[in-house]
């Protein structure tokens, strides 16, 4: 019975396999019979000629209806044609190429033994992760395997598994690294090549990397290019070996290419404002304060600007959560930030163009472009982060007065209409003074401001569109003040930036930094074999640096703490070409230090290295001041003869000195007269006091008797209190008396009277001849009368 059941199960598997092959042939035939008039009428995925496993994955993932680009591109891709597709942002381009990729490998009965079958290349890591997540959803019920290779991940972990995947997604730099170094990755059998955001990848920044990748792929592959703004350059198509490509445009209903026209979502509300360069940060601050319950994405031109604005606003606390995202961050931080921003309902993300393409952040309310984009294509990609899949969205472009005319005219040429906004004066808040205060108190923040200033100037200089970007017309001094800097850093502007130098800058920006650091180390002879070096947990513990976000900048700012003022950091992009800081380091005078022998005693070593003894032997330091060029000068410095003569003839100086001398003489006479009058008044009051003590007891005043208790007691120090030199206590009482006579209701606050006779020799004395007793400071007239009567008795 057991053998019979096995025979039946084998027969069932054979029948199922034959049915699957038959269905697959029918689907293939249906794909070839599809016409453009037929597939343009499709509305849902289940109407497409797809296998049951793919349709099941689409349905379970919530993908039911077809968008315009999916309706037009998927059938052409399934037929095996090279496709050049363009569609508006948020129109579903990811599924438009993932569905054909999975279906193509299913048609070929692809398995793990066949190796790599499809290669998908994206310009950014975040976009690669997003595509990978979508692929896992729709291909869940197939037998295919997928892999993700991006920078910032563990290369050794990827190297062990990259040879066993059927669909590989990655960025150009990491893909090329695996092709060169991973022996298990074989690309001879690749069936499909997909370039997402193709115009960015075909840009000259990725030119060498992409050419190296294409050189290792078979020529008979199928190539798909997808982007919101597409290229039709003959040279680019020849590089990709595309044969009779089909042009698909999801922006137009007829599926044709709309020339130079760029289409944006209809639910997007576009606007722009014109502000001076030094008011950009204040504008952003005012906007955030008035939109605390919104989800905002802010674009700036460089990562250093992102860092500075984030740290500054974080200290000022606008009342809305702040995030930052740029290409200089580590991969873990970038993924965490992307996840947090996706899940947040109200927050502000300050980012560069690394998130301008392809990323799907749900429910973004506002896209703010604080810096003008390099071209209209970049503008389209930036604003495409909102108003996706029919949702509402708003965008605001911030332009400078010299940028408005050129950029708006270019947008009009592309048939993009945008309205101008005027900001109310009551809504504007100037935060320049707060930023200056922060930079004054924080050397790290001031350093970030300098780097951000140079980075912005650099981004303007290297722009190709000189009708919009004009560095000569920018108020750089006011811009530096708005960043909290006391003065504008000295810039060394290049005379001319041609296409070749611009290409070098972009190549440097997109190159693999880890490979660069390793190559530099090998060139210098520092590292012989990286594979032999094993870092233990103790090595990591001792090599760990301060995790503060500004620690690296602070170490560069203070080389004495262990930093190096050299271009070794990832954040330094040859800024020395634009700013040179003159530093005059005093040379150490080693001649004055005693020579130490190897056999010197500990006492001799300590004495020689003592700072105190060294300072006593040498000359004492002098206080110096530094001018703008960094040169040291004494605080008081005599002018030379030429400077003295330039200020005027000697007669002018002598007249000025004589006039000032007369003024000082008159002032001295007035001061001496005031002091003389005060002494006479003290003497007169003292004599009046003595007369009152000698006179009738009823006329005596309590404060004088209480203060002069030492006179009645016969104290040996009594004469000291009568003299002008030691009569400090008497004028205080006189001033108190004058205050009490002048103000009837207000009693001035008096200090507690010092107890003069608190010594032990006067305590417990029964002799009545001593005439010494302790009293408290009298407060009222009754106290004074009682005290006077007691003294008389």
TrEMBL record:
Q: Where is this motif: Q motif?
A: 43-71
Q: Name one Pfam family in it.
A: CTE_SPB4
The answer to whether UniProt assigns keyword Nucleotide-binding to this entry is yes
The keyword Acetylation is annotated on this UniProt entry: no
Q: Where is it found, in Gene Ontology cellular component terms?
A: small-subunit processome
Q: Where in the cell is it found?
A: Nucleus, Nucleolus
Return the annotated region ranges for Disordered: 500-530, 645-783
Taxonomic superkingdom: Eukaryota
Where's the Helicase ATP-binding domain?
74-248
The residue ranges flagged as biased composition, category Basic and acidic residues, are: 500-514, 645-680, 747-771
Q: Which reaction does it catalyse?
A: ATP + H2O = ADP + phosphate + H(+)
Main location, first listed in the record: nucleus
Keywords from UniProt, A to Z, are:
ATP-binding, Coiled coil, Helicase, Hydrolase, Nucleotide-binding, Nucleus, Ribosome biogenesis, RNA-binding, rRNA processing
Q: What is its EC number?
A: 3.6.4.13
Q: Which spans of this chain does the record mark as coiled coil?
A: 10-37
An example Gene Ontology molecular-function term? RNA helicase activity
Q: Which Gene3D superfamilies match?
A: P-loop containing nucleotide triphosphate hydrolases
In this protein, which residues make up the domain named DEAD-box RNA helicase Q? 43-71
Tell me the ranges covered by the Helicase C-terminal domain, including all copies: 267-439
One Gene Ontology term of the biological-process aspect is:
rRNA processing
Query: What family does the database annotate?
Result: Belongs to the DEAD box helicase family.
Q: What is recorded about the domains?
A: The Q motif is unique to and characteristic of the DEAD box family of RNA helicases and controls ATP binding and hydrolysis.
Quote the function comment for this protein: RNA helicase.
Q: What is this protein called?
A: ATP-dependent RNA helicase
């Amino acid at each position: 019975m057991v053998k019979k059941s096995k025979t039946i199960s084998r027969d069932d598997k054979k029948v199922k396999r034959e049915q699957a092959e038959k269905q697959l042939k029918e689907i293939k035939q249906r794909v070839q019979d599809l016409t453009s008039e037929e597939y343009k009428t499709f509305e849902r995925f289940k109407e497409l000629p797809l296998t049951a496993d793919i349709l099941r994955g689409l349905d379970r993932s919530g993908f039911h209806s077809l968008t315009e680009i999916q309706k037009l591109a998927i059938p052409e891709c399934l037929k095996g044609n090279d496709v050049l597709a363009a569609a508006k942002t948020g129109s579903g381009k990811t599924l438009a190429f993932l569905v054909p990729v999975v279906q193509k490998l299913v048609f070929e009965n692809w398995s793990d033994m066949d190796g790599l079958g499809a290669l998908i290349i994206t310009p950014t890591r975040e976009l690669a992760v997003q595509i990978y997540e979508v692929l896992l959803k729709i291909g869940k019920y197939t037998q295919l395997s997928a892999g993700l290779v991006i920078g910032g991940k563990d290369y050794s972990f990827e190297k062990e598994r990259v040879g066993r995947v059927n669909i590989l997604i990655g960025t150009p730099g990491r893909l090329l690294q695996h092709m060169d170094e991973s022996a298990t990755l074989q690309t001879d059998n690749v069936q499909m090549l997909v370039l997402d955001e193709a115009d960015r990848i075909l840009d000259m920044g990725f030119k060498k990397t992409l050419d190296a990748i294409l050189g290792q792929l078979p020529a008979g592959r199928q190539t798909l290019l997808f982007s919101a703004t597409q290229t039709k350059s003959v040279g680019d198509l020849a590089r990709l070996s595309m044969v009779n490509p089909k042009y698909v445009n999801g922006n137009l209903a007829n599926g044709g290419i709309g020339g130079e026209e760029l289409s944006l979502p209809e639910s997007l509300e576009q606007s722009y404002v014109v502000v001076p360069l030094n008011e950009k940060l204040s504008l952003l601050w005012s906007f955030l304060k008035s939109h605390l319950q919104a989800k905002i994405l802010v674009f700036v031109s460089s990562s250093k600007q992102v860092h500075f604005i984030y740290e500054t606003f974080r200290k000022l606390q606008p009342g809305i959560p702040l995030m930052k995202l740029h290409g200089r961050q580590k991969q873990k931080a970038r993924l965490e930030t992307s996840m947090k921003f996706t899940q947040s309902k109200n927050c502000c993300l300050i980012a560069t163009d690394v998130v301008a393409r392809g990323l799907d952040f749900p429910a973004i309310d506002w896209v703010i472009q604080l810096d003008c984009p390099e071209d209209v294509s970049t503008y389209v990609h930036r604003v495409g982060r909102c108003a996706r899949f029919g949702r509402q969205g708003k965008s605001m472009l911030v332009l400078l007065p010299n940028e408005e005319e050129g950029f708006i005219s270019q947008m009009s040429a592309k048939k993009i209409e945008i309205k101008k906004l005027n900001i109310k004066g009551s809504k504007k808040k100037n935060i320049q003074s707060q930023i200056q205060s922060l930079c004054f108190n924080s050397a790290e923040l001031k350093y970030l401001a300098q780097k951000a200033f140079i980075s912005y100037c650099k981004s303007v200089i290297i722009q190709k569109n000189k009708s919009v970007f004009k560095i000569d017309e920018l108020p750089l001094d006011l811009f530096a003040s708005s960043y909290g800097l006391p003065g504008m850093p000295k810039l060394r502007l290049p005379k001319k930036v041609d296409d070749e130098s611009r290409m070098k800058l972009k190549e440097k920006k997109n190159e693999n930094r880890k490979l660069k650091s390793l190559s530099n180390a090998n060139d210098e002879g520092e590292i012989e074999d990286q594979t032999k070096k094993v870092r233990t947990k103790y090595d990591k513990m001792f090599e760990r640096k301060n995790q503060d976000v500004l620690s690296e900048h602070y170490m560069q700012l203070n080389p004495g703490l262990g930093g190096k003022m050299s271009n070794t950091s990832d954040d330094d992009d040859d800024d020395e070409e634009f700013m040179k800081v003159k530093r005059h380091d005093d040379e150490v005078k080693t001649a004055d230090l005693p020579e130490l022998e190897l056999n010197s005693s500990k006492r001799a070593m300590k004495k020689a290295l003592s700072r105190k003894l060294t300072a006593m032997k040498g000359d004492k330091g002098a206080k110096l001041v530094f001018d703008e060029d960094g040169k040291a000068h004494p605080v008081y410095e005599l002018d030379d003869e030429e400077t003295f003569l330039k200020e005027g003839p000697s007669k002018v100086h002598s007249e000025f000195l004589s006039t000032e001398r007369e003024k000082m003489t008159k002032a001295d006479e007035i001061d001496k007269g005031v002091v003389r009058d005060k002494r006479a008044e003290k003497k007169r009051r003292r004599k009046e006091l003595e007369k009152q003590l000698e006179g009738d007891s009823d006329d005596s005043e309590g404060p004088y008797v209480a203060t002069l208790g030492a006179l009645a007691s016969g104290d040996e120090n009594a004469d000291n209190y009568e003299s002008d030199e030691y009569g400090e206590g008497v004028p205080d009482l006189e001033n108190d008396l004058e205050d009490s006579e002048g103000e009837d209701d207000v009693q001035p606050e008096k200090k507690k009277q010092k107890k003069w006779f608190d010594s032990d020799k006067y305590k417990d004395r029964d002799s009545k001849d001593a005439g010494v007793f302790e009293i408290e400071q009298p407060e009222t007239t009754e106290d004074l009368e009682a005290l006077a009567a007691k003294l008389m008795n």
